[in-house]
Specification:
The complex is a heterotrimer.
Chain A (H helix, E strand, L loop, with lengths): L2 H21 L2 H27 L4 E8 L3 E7 L1 H24 L9 H20 L3 H19 L10 H26 L6 H9 L3 H19 L8 H7 L2 H26 L5 H24 L3 H28 L3 H36 L10 H4 L1 H14 L6 H14 L7 H33 L16 H19 L1 H16 L4 H4 L15 H9 L16 E4 L6 E5 L1 H23 L26 H11 L1 H4 L2 E10 L3 E10 L3 H22 L6 H19 L3 H22 L1
Antiparallel strand pairs in A: 1-2, 3-4, 5-6
Helix pairs in contact in A: 1-2, 1-4, 2-3, 2-4, 3-4, 3-10, 3-13, 3-18, 3-19, 4-5, 5-6, 5-10, 6-8, 6-9, 8-10, 9-12, 10-12, 10-13, 11-12, 11-17, 12-13, 12-16, 12-17, 13-15, 13-16, 13-18, 13-19, 15-17, 15-18, 16-17, 16-18, 17-23, 26-27
Chain B lengths: L1 H12 L20 E2 L7 H10 L5 E4 L2 E4 L20 E2 L6 E2 L16 E7 L5 H8 L12 E3 L8 E5 L4 H13 L5 E5 L1 H5 L21 E3 L6 H11 L23
Parallel strand pairs in B: 6-7, 6-8, 8-9, 9-10
Antiparallel strand pairs in B: 1-4, 2-3, 5-10
Chain C lengths: L3 H11 L4 E6 L4 E6 L5 H11 L2 E10 L4 E9 L5 E6 L7 E3 L9 H11 L2 E3 L27 H6 L13 E2 L4 E5 L11 E6 L4 E7 L7 H5 L4 H10 L5 H16 L5 H30 L2 H22 L8 E2 L2 E2 L5 H26 L2 H7 L7 H7 L3 H6 L6 H4 L20 H21 L20 E9 L2 E9 L5 E7 L1 H13 L7 H8 L3 H5 L1
Helix pairs in contact in C: 6-7, 7-8, 8-9, 8-15, 8-17, 9-10, 10-15, 15-17, 16-17
Classes of the chains: A mainly alpha, B alpha/beta, C alpha+beta.
C-alpha cells in the first residue's frame, strides 16, 4: 500500500472525528477521541514508517494564485518525525478517554475534540509540507491550536498570560522563520523545498548565516531553548496533562525538525560556526533547565523545565552533528545525528509517560505540589510503577531508553578529539562536561520527585484519592513504559531504523559505524577483521543470532588499528545478565536462608520517636537545597525577610524566612533588555506632544524621503522601503 | 604533614590492649570487685550487715544471709568502717544468663561478630561511661568482633543501662521492636537489674525486666569495662556465664531503698 | 557592690513594709522576705541588674499552710548569699514571673510549674517541660504532697496528637528529629532541628526523658540514703554532688570536718574533674573524626579511671564522701602515687594539646563554630567551663570558697571567643589547674581522723551546700526535720543551667557541626533530668 492512501485515510479519519465531535454528546466524544484518534495515530505511524524505509512520495495540490502550488512529500526525515509524533498521539488518545472524564461537565468536550483533531491535521500538514507556504500554514495552525488547548482549562478569572506568552513568543519566532525562508527563497527560483535545496548549495556566506540565525532563533523559541524559553515552564503546566504530554512530547520536536530541515537539508552548513552556536545554546539550555527543574516543587512545572533540559541535549547533539558535517566528517556527523534523533524519540516517549503520571496524581489528589504529596505508592500503585519506569529512563539509567541516547550523545561529543581545530575541541570539551553535569542533576531531580511524591509518609493527612485512575490511563502509561524498556534493550534495531533519515542528511550510512555485524547471517559479517570478530565472539556478541534478525546486539564504534574499539555497550545482553543474576541470587537466598527466617513488617525507625509525623520528614525544598546552595551564583536568591518575632529579649515565637529568586534568564537578559526598550520607548514618546503642526511636518518629511528613495535603484529599494513604510504607518497610527 | 604526625603518634604509643580474654587482666584499678559470701557468718553479724545495705543486696532471713549481687550498688557500707566487713572479691567475670533465658546460641556465622545497640533508659552516666570505654585502646572490643551500631536494624544485642524511666519506656520498646531476630537483651548495671538506688516510682522503674525479657545480666555499679566485655562474650556464646541466677526476675518489683 | 548588710538595708528602704530583711552573719546568709507578690520582679531585677548579683536558682517547697518559694542570689565578689523568699498561702497558684527581667530564671519557673502546678504570670512558655505532654496529663504536679501516683497512672495521657512546637515559617521548612535513641552510645535526649535543608535554623532540645523524680524520692528518707541519691543521680560528678550534699548537712548540723578529710575531699574532687574533662576532650576528638587523637584522649581517661580505682577501690570514687568527712581513710603513700600518676597524665595531655593545635583540619571544625556570646552567657546566667569560655563566669571555688579552697592557690582560666576551640582550651587549662591543686595537698595531709561523728536527729533546719562541679556550679538545698529525715532536697545542677543555652550555639550552623557543638559543651543529660 502506498503512503498516499494511508495519508488520505488519515485525513479522512481526522475530518470525520472533527465533524462527529459537533454531533455527538459529551460522553460519547471520549470514546470517539480514543478510537478515531488512535486509528489516526496508527495511520500516521504507518505513513511515517513507510517514509523512513524509503517509500517516499511527492504530491502536488492545485496551484493557488500568487502563492504557488502546495506540495506534499514524505521523506525519511519527516517520516521519522511522523512516527515519533504518532507514538505520542496514540497513547494520548487512549489516555484522554479516561483522563477527560474528570473534565466532563466542567469544560466543553466539543472544543477539545475539534482542537485535538485540528492539531493532528496541522502536525501532519507541517511535516509533510514540501513548500514554504504549506509549511508555514501548518506551523501557524499548530501554534494557534496549541494556544487554544493550553488555555483549555482556563476559567475566566485565571491568569491567561501563560497561553498568551506562548502564542506571542511563538509568533515572534514565526516571523523569524518566515524571514529565513524568504531570504533563502529570494536566492532561489521558487518556494518549493526542492528549489530551495538547489539554491541552498551555492548561497553566500552572510546569507547562510542570516538564514541560520533567523531559523535557529525562530525554531528555538518553539523548541524551548535559552533564552527564549520562558514561556515553556509557564504554559505546559497550565494545560491538562494529556495536552502537556503532546506539547512536550510531539510539538517541541517540530522545532528540532525545522532546524534540521533548514540547516542540514535545505541550506546545509559549511562552516563549524553555526554548529558551535547550536551546541553551546543547547548545552546552556540543558543546564539552566535542569537546575530550575531541581528547584521546582510542582510536578508539571518540573517536567516542563526538564523538557527544556532534554531539548537542550537534543539540540546540543544536533549542533555536534552540524559541526562534524561542516568539517567533512560525515561518519561522525551521522553518529551525532543518530544520537540526537534517538534522544528525541526517547524524550517523546518518557516525557509523555511522566506527564501522564503527573496527570493521574493531580486528578487523584487534587494537588501537584510535592510538598503536599507522599506515600502515593500505596494509593496509586500502577501510576507509581509506570512513573518509576519513566523516571529511570529520564535519569539515563540502564537498561532503559534514556541511557542509550544519553550515552551515545556524550560519546559523540568525546569524538571531537579526532578533529584538528583546537578551538572546536575546547568548546566540545566544555559542553561535554556540562552535559555530564546535567545528567547528574537530572538524577537528583527525579530521585527527589519520585521519593517526595510516591515514597515516604503521606503529607496530605490521609487524604483519600478523589478519583480513580481509569483503565485507559493505565493502558496508555503501560504502553509507553513498555516502549521505554524496548527502546532501551533493543537499541541496535532502532539505530538501524534511524540510519535511514540520517543517511539522507549526511550522505553516508552510520549503521556500519555503530552496529557491527556480529550475527553470522547478516551482511558484512565476513568483512569484520578476524581477530576483532574472534575477541567479541568470545564475549558472546553473537548470542541470539539464530533467533534474532539484524546485524547484532552490540552498539560499538570502531576506530583504527591503534584503538580498535572507541566505545561499546550492549544493553540487550546486560539485561539478560542482570535478570540472570537477580534470579540466581534469589534462588540462592531462598535455599540458604531456608524456611526459618520470617519477614516482619515494622514501622520506620525514627530514633525511638513514634509515630513519625510527616512534618518531621524531608520536604522537596529541603532535598534540593544543596543544589541551590552549590549553584548560588546562578540562582542568586535575595533575602526578602529574615525576622524573628520575640517576646522579651530571649523568647522567640516565630522566625520568618522568605527568599526571592528571579530566573537567571530574566535577570541577565530579558529584564535588562526590557528596561532598555522601555527607556527607548519613553524617549521616543517625547515625539508625541500632541501638536498637530509637528505631525504635519513629519508627514511632509516622510513624503519627501520616499520621493528621494524612489530615485534609488530597485535592489536597495527592496530593503529600505519596507522600513519607511512601517515608520509612516506607525506615525499615522499614532495620529489617529 | 598533619596526617603523618598522627600516624607516627599512634605508632609511638604502641599497643596497650589488654590480653583478656586470653589472659587475666591484673592492672590496678580495672575493677571495683563485688561482695561474696564465703563462709558462714553469725546471725547477728549477718543481720547487722543486712541493715547496713541500703538496697537489700544482703538480706538476713532466719539466721541465713543471702547475697543478691544484682542489687549491689557499690556503696561499700558493708566494707568501710565496719568491724567485720563482708568478703570482697576482686575480678570482673560477673555476667550471668538470666533465669528463664537459655544460654545464647547464635545461627552459624553470627557468633564471631555481633552488633550492639546501646540504649540509655535513665542511666546516671557511669554505666554508659564504662560502655564507652570499651572502645578505647585498653579494651578495644573491635578485636573481639563487637561493634556499636546507631541503628537497631543492624543490631544483634540490645544493651540497656538505667532503671527504665517512664518517659524512656516507649522508646526502649520501639528500639527492641525495631531489631530483627535473633536478638538478645543485655541489662548492664545495678539500675538495669533492680532499679539501683532509685526506688521504683511512677517515673522510674525497677530495671529492664519490667519492660523487656532480659537474657544477660551484668551486675555492678557500674560494672567495669572488663565485666561488660565478659557479658558480651557470654552473649556471643564464647564464654559461659558465671553462675546461673536462681532468683526469678519477677521478684524484682520493689526496691529496697528505705 | 554592696555587702550583705547593705543589700538588706537598701531593700528595706526601697520597699518599706513589703520587704523584710534578716541577716545570719555566721553562714553568712541574708534573707529578704517579700510579702507583696507584685514587688517580686522589681526586687529580682534590682538585685541582678543594679547590684550585680547572680541568680543561682529557685526552690519551691510546699509547707503546711503556705508555699515557700526561695530565690537564691550570690555575688562574685563577696562571700555570702541573699535569699529572696515569698510565702504565699497554698490557695495562691499564681506568681509573677521574673523571667522577663532575668532570663536565667526561665527553666526554673517552668520546672516548678510542671512539678508543683504554680503558674508564673508573664512567662510565655509554660507547660510540657519536665513531664512530656504526650505521656502525662498537664498539671499532675507530682511534687505535691497530695499527689496520688495511682490516679496519675490510670488517667489517660493528655495529648496523643502531640507535635513539636514549630516556629520557623517559610517555604519548605521542616523539622529533623534526632533521638532520643541515636548515635552509638549517647545519653537519651531528643532534638528537633528546624531547617530548610542545609543549616539548622532553630534547635529545640527536648530533655527529661531520663527524669526519675529524685527530689521526690528524697523526701522522707534518712540522710544516709538521701546521700546515695545525691551522689548517684549523676555519677560522673559523684564526688562534687555528694560534697555539696554533705556540706548542706554539715551546715545544718553545725559540724566541722577534720582537716585531713578536707584535703582528701579536695584530692578526690580534682581527680574527678581531671577525669571528666579528659572524657569531654575525648568526645570532642571523636566527634571531629580525628581517630588517633580520640584514642590518645581515651587512654588518658582510662588512666585516670585506673588511678581512681587503685586509690579508692572504685573507678568513679563512689561511697567516699559522707557527712562529717570521709567513710574511709586513704594512705598518704597511695595519695602521693596517685598525684604522681596524675602529673604523668598531664604531661601526656600537654603533648596531645600541642599536636591538636597544629592540626588545621581539626581546628577548622572547632574555631568559629558553636559560638556563645558573652552577652548571651550573662543573660542566661551560665556556669562552668562553657561560661568561662565565653568570657563570663566565675568559679565557686574562688567567689564562694568552700571546703578549704580558700587557702589554695590556683587560677581560673577564661577565654572570650565562646566557640568550640575556646571551650577545648578551657578544659585543658582546667586540667592543668586541677593537677596543680592536687600537688599542693600532701603538705596539708597530716595523719588524723577523717570523720566527725554526729547525729542527724535534733537538727531541724535548712542549709545550702555548693561546689564547683566539673561542669559548673552545683547547689544542694536541704531541709531536715527534727527526726533526722529529709523534708526537701533541691538539686540545682550546672547542666540544667547550661542546657538552657545550648540552642543558641547550635543554630545557624550546618547539620554536620551539630554533634561537634554538642560534644564541646560536655553536658550531662542525667545531671539535668534528675
Amino acid at each position: 500500500m502506498s503512503p498516499q492512501v494511508f495519508l488520505g485515510v488519515f485525513y479522512a479519519l481526522c475530518a470525520s472525528g472533527l465533524v462527529a465531535g459537533f454531533v455527538l454528546s459529551d460522553r460519547s466524544i471520549l470514546p470517539l477521541i480514543g478510537c478515531v484518534g488512535s486509528a489516526a495515530s496508527v495511520t500516521m505511524f504507518v505513513v511515517g514508517t513507510l517514509g523512513i524505509l524509503g517509500n517516499t512520495f511527492s504530491y502536488r495540490l492545485s496551484a493557488l494564485p500568487q502563492v504557488g502550488a502546495f506540495t506534499f512529500s514524505v521523506d525519511p526525515l519527516s517520516g521519522l518525525f511522523l512516527s515519533v509524533s504518532a507514538l505520542v498521539f496514540l497513547p494520548v488518545s487512549v489516555y484522554s478517554v479516561g483522563y477527560l472524564k474528570h473534565y466532563l461537565g466542567l469544560f466543553s468536550m466539543r472544543s477539545f475534540c475539534a482542537c485535538y483533531f485540528g492539531l493532528l491535521i496541522s502536525v501532519v500538514l507541517l511535516l509533510t509540507a514540501s513548500d514554504v507556504v504549506g509549511f508555514l500554514t501548518g506551523w501557524e495552525l499548530m501554534s494557534i491550536i496549541g494556544y487554544l488547548l493550553v488555555n483549555y482549562q482556563r476559567r475566566g478569572e485565571e491568569d491567561p498570560r501563560p497561553g498568551y506568552m506562548m502564542l506571542t513568543m511563538g509568533e515572534v519566532g514565526f516571523l523569524a522563520v518566515t524571514l529565513a525562508f524568504l531570504i533563502l527563497a529570494s536566492r532561489s527560483s521558487g518556494l518549493t523545498f526542492s528549489s530551495l535545496r538547489t539554491a541552498g548549495v551555492s548561497v553566500s556566506f552572510p546569507i547562510r548565516w542570516a538564514v541560520f540565525l533567523l531559523s535557529f532563533f525562530g525554531f528555538g523559541v518553539k523548541t524551548g531553548l535559552v533564552p527564549f524559553n520562558r514561556w515553556l515552564p509557564k504554559a505546559h503546566p497550565v494545560a491538562p496533562a494529556n495536552v502537556s504530554a503532546f506539547l512536550s512530547g510531539a510539538l517541541l520536536n517540530l522545532g528540532v525538525y525545522g532546524i534540521a530541515r533548514l540547516n542540514l537539508d535545505l541550506a546545509p552548513v559549511t562552516t563549524p560556526g553555526p554548529g558551535l552556536v547550536v551546541l553551546v545554546i543547547g548545552t546552556l539550555s540543558a543546564l539552566v533547565g535542569i537546575l530550575y527543574a531541581n528547584r521546582e516543587n510542582d510536578m508539571k512545572t518540573m517536567l516542563a523545565e526538564s523538557s527544556i533540559e532534554n531539548m537542550g541535549i537534543i539540540t546540543a547533539g544536533l549542533g555536534a552533528g552540524m559541526v562534524f558535517y561542516s568539517l567533512n566528517v560525515p561518519s561522525l556527523a551521522g553518529i551525532a545525528l543518530v544520537a540526537t534523533l534517538y534522544h528525541m524519540t526517547n524524550h517523546s516517549v518518557y516525557k509523555s509517560l511522566l506527564f501522564f503520571g503527573a496527570g493521574s496524581v493531580d486528578a487523584a489528589m487534587g494537588t501537584r505540589d510535592m510538598n503536599r504529596l507522599g506515600g502515593l505508592i500505596k494509593i496509586l500503585p500502577w501510576t507509581a510503577a509506570f512513573f518509576l519506569v519513566g523516571a529511570l529512563s529520564i535519569s539515563a539509567l540502564p537498561p532503559f531508553s534514556g541511557f542509550v541516547s544519553e550515552w551515545l550523545t556524550l560519546q559523540t561529543l568525546l569524538q571531537s578529539a579526532t578533529l584538528h581545530s583546537s578551538g572546536v575541541k575546547v568548546v566540545f570539551a566544555l559542553c561535554g562536561a556540562t552535559l555530564a553535569l546535567t545528567a547528574a542533576l537530572a538524577v537528583t531531580c527525579f530521585v527527589k520527585t519520585y521519593a517526595m511524591s510516591f515514597l515516604g509518609i503521606s503529607r496530605s493527612n490521609g487524604h483519600r484519592p478523589q478519583a480513580r485512575t481509569y483503565r485507559s490511563m493505565k493502558l496508555a502509561m503501560g504502553f509507553l513504559a513498555i516502549l521505554c524498556f524496548a527502546l532501551g534493550v533493543l537499541p541496535t534495531y532502532f539505530i538501524a531504523l534511524l540510519d535511514h533519515p540520517v543517511r539522507e542528511l549526511v550522505g553516508t550510512t552510520s549503521i556500519e559505524a555503530l552496529v557491527p555485524p556480529f550475527f553470522p547471517a547478516s551482511a558484512g559479517h565476513e568483512s569484520l577483521p578476524s581477530t576483532f570478530s574472534a575477541e567479541f565472539h568470545d564475549l558472546g556478541a553473537q548470542v541470539g543470532s539464530r533467533v534474532l534478525p539484524g546485524r547484532g546486539l552490540v552498539v560499538l564504534h570502531r576506530g583504527g588499528t591503534a584503538n580498535p574499539v572507541v566505545f561499546a555497550m550492549s544493553t540487550s545482553y546486560a539485561i539478560v545478565v542482570l535478570a540472570g543474576l537477580l534470579v540466581s541470587v534469589y534462588l540462592l537466598a531462598r535455599r540458604w536462608a531456608g524456611h526459618k527466617s520470617r519477614c516482619f513488617r515494622k514501622p520506620v525507625w525514627a530514633g525511638g520517636l513514634q509515630p513519625l509525623l510527616p512534618e518531621l520528614t524531608y520536604t522537596a525544598t529541603g532535598f534540593s537545597n544543596p543544589v541551590g546552595v552549590t549553584f548560588n551564583a546562578i540562582f542568586h536568591p535575595t533575602e526578602v525577610e529574615d525576622s524573628s518575632e520575640m517576646v522579651g529579649q530571649h523568647f522567640r515565637m516565630a522566625i520568618r524566612r522568605l527568599v526571592e529568586e528571579i530566573h537567571v534568564v530574566d535577570r541577565l537578559l530579558l529584564q535588562p533588555v526590557n528596561t532598555r526598550i522601555r527607556e527607548v520607548a519613553n524617549r521616543l514618546a517625547s515625539m508625541h506632544h500632541g501638536r498637530l503642526n509637528s505631525y504635519a511636518a513629519y508627514i511632509l518629511a516622510t513624503f519627501l524621503a520616499v520621493l528621494l528613495v524612489a530615485r534609488i535603484p530597485a535592489s536597495q529599494q527592496f530593503t529600505i522601503s519596507p522600513a519607511l513604510i512601517i515608520i509612516v504607518v506607525l506615525l499615522v497610527d499614532r495620529l489617529l | 604533614m598533619e596526617i603523618k604526625q598522627w600516624v607516627l603518634q599512634g605508632l609511638r604509643t604502641g599497643i596497650m590492649t589488654t590480653r583478656y580474654p586470653a589472659a587475666k587482666e591484673s592492672a590496678p584499678g580495672v575493677s571495683p570487685g563485688l561482695p561474696a559470701l564465703v563462709s558462714e557468718m553469725s546471725a547477728e553479724e549477718g543481720s547487722r550487715l543486712a541493715t547496713l545495705c541500703p538496697t537489700g543486696a544482703l538480706e538476713a532471713e532466719n539466721g541465713q544471709v543471702h547475697l543478691d549481687v544484682r542489687r549491689c550498688v557499690h556503696c561499700f557500707r558493708c566494707v568501710r568502717g565496719v568491724g567485720t566487713p563482708v568478703h570482697w572479691e576482686a575480678g570482673y567475670e560477673w555476667a550471668r544468663v538470666a533465669a528463664g533465658a537459655k544460654q545464647p546460641v547464635w545461627p552459624k556465622g553470627f557468633s564471631k561478630s555481633l552488633h550492639i545497640r546501646v540504649v540509655d533508659a535513665g542511666d546516671c552516666g557511669a554505666c554508659l561511661s564504662e560502655v564507652k570505654q570499651l572502645n578505647n585502646p585498653y579494651y578495644n572490643m573491635h578485636r573481639l568482633g563487637f561493634f556499636l551500631t546507631p541503628t537497631p536494624r543492624n543490631a544483634d544485642i540490645l544493651l540497656v543501662v538505667g532503671p527504665v524511666t517512664e518517659q524512656m519506656r516507649k522508646p526502649l520498646l520501639e528500639t527492641y521492636e525495631a531489631m530483627p531476630t535473633p536478638k538478645l537483651v543485655m541489662a548492664v548495671g545495678a539500675c538495669a537489674l533492680s532499679g539501683g538506688v532509685f526506688s521504683p516510682s511512677i517515673f522510674s522503674g525497677a530495671g529492664v525486666a519490667g519492660t523487656l525479657p532480659v537474657d544477660i545480666e551484668v551486675p555492678g555499679a557500674p560494672p567495669p569495662p572488663l565485666a561488660i566485655l565478659h557479658g558480651l562474650l557470654v552473649a556471643a556464646g564464647r564464654k559461659t556465664s558465671a553462675v546461673r541466677s536462681v532468683v526469678p526476675v519477677q521478684q524484682m518489683e520493689t526496691g529496697k531503698l528505705a | 557592690m554592696p555587702s550583705l548588710i547593705e543589700t538588706v538595708t537598701q531593700a528595706e528602704q526601697k520597699w518599706p513594709g513589703q520587704v523584710q530583711g534578716w541577716l545570719d552573719r555566721r553562714k553568712p546568709v541574708s534573707e529578704l522576705r517579700c510579702n507583696a507578690l507584685e514587688v517580686l520582679p522589681k526586687l529580682a531585677r534590682w538585685l541582678v541588674i543594679d547590684l550585680d548579683y547572680r541568680l543561682a536558682g529557685l526552690i519551691a517547697e510546699e509547707q503546711a499552710e503556705a508555699w515557700e518559694i526561695r530565690y537564691l542570689f550570690y555575688q562574685e565578689r563577696h562571700e555570702g548569699w541573699t535569699h529572696l523568699i515569698v510565702r504565699p498561702p497554698l490557695k495562691v497558684k499564681n506568681l509573677p514571673s521574673i523571667t522577663p527581667e532575668i532570663h536565667a530564671a526561665d527553666w526554673h519557673e517552668r520546672e516548678i510549674e510542671d512539678l508543683f502546678g504554680i503558674t508564673f504570670e508573664g512567662h510565655p512558655l509554660l507547660g510540657d517541660f519536665v513531664l512530656h505532654n504526650d505521656l502525662w496529663r498537664e498539671a499532675i504536679a507530682p511534687m505535691r504532697r497530695a499527689f496520688d501516683p495511682q490516679a496519675a497512672l490510670t488517667e489517660p495521657a493528655a495529648d496523643l496528637e502531640w507535635r513539636p512546637r514549630r516556629i520557623v515559617e517559610g517555604p519548605g521548612a521542616f523539622v529533623m528529629p534526632v533521638g532520643p535513641v541515636f548515635s552509638g552510645a549517647t545519653e537519651s535526649v531528643q532534638f528537633f532541628l528546624e531547617t530548610v535543608g542545609e543549616d539548622v535554623i532553630r534547635a529545640f532540645p527536648r530533655l527529661f526523658y531520663k527524669f526519675r523524680g529524685v527530689e521526690k524520692m528524697a523526701e522522707g528518707k534518712s540522710v544516709d540514703n538521701c546521700l546515695l541519691l545525691a551522689e548517684r543521680f549523676t555519677a560522673t560528678s559523684a564526688v562534687a554532688h555528694s560534697w555539696a550534699f554533705c556540706q548542706a548537712v554539715e551546715t545544718i548540723c553545725r559540724v566541722r570536718i577534720p582537716k585531713r578529710a578536707q584535703s582528701l575531699r579536695i584530692l578526690l574532687a580534682e581527680l574527678e574533674r581531671l577525669r571528666h574533662h579528659l572524657g569531654v576532650v575525648h568526645d570532642i576528638c571523636e566527634s571531629t573524626g580525628l581517630a588517633v587523637a580520640a584514642s590518645e584522649a581515651a587512654i588518658l581517661e582510662e588512666d585516670v579511671l585506673r588511678i581512681c580505682g587503685a586509690l579508692t577501690g572504685h573507678r568513679y570514687l563512689f561511697g567516699l564522701l559522707v557527712p562529717g568527712g570521709l567513710s574511709a581513710d586513704i594512705e598518704n603513700s597511695a595519695c602521693l602515687k596517685a598525684i604522681e600518676d596524675a602529673q604523668e597524665v598531664l604531661r601526656r595531655l600537654a603533648e596531645l594539646e600541642r599536636m591538636l593545635r597544629y592540626s588545621s583540619s581539626f581546628l577548622d571544625r572547632l574555631e568559629g563554630v558553636g559560638i556563645l556570646s558573652p552577652e548571651k552567657a550573662r543573660g542566661f546566667g551560665l556556669v562552668g567551663p562553657v561560661a568561662r569560655a565565653s568570657g563570663f563566669g566565675d568559679d565557686l571555688r574562688q567567689t564562694q570558697p568552700y571546703g578549704g579552697y580558700g587557702a589554695m592557690s590556683f587560677e581560673v582560666p577564661t577565654e572570650s571567643e565562646g566557640d568550640g576551640f575556646a571551650r577545648l582550651r578551657i578544659l585543658i587549662a582546667e586540667c592543668v589547674q586541677a593537677v596543680r591543686l592536687m600537688a599542693q595537698l600532701p603538705s596539708s595531709m597530716e595523719p588524723g581522723a577523717v570523720r566527725e561523728d554526729f547525729h542527724y536527729e535534733g537538727h531541724e533546719g535548712v542549709g545550702l551546700g555548693w561546689t564547683e562541679a566539673p561542669r559548673g556550679a552545683a547547689f544542694h538545698w536541704l531541709r531536715l526535720g527534727a527526726d533526722g529525715l529529709v523534708k526537701r532536697l533541691r538539686l540545682i545542677t550546672p547542666s540544667f543551667v547550661n542546657w538552657h543555652s545550648f540552642h543558641l550555639a547550635a543554630e545557624k550552623f550546618a547539620f554536620q557541626d551539630f554533634p561537634i557543638i554538642l560534644a564541646t559543651f560536655g553536658l550531662s543529660v542525667a545531671e539535668n533530668d534528675r
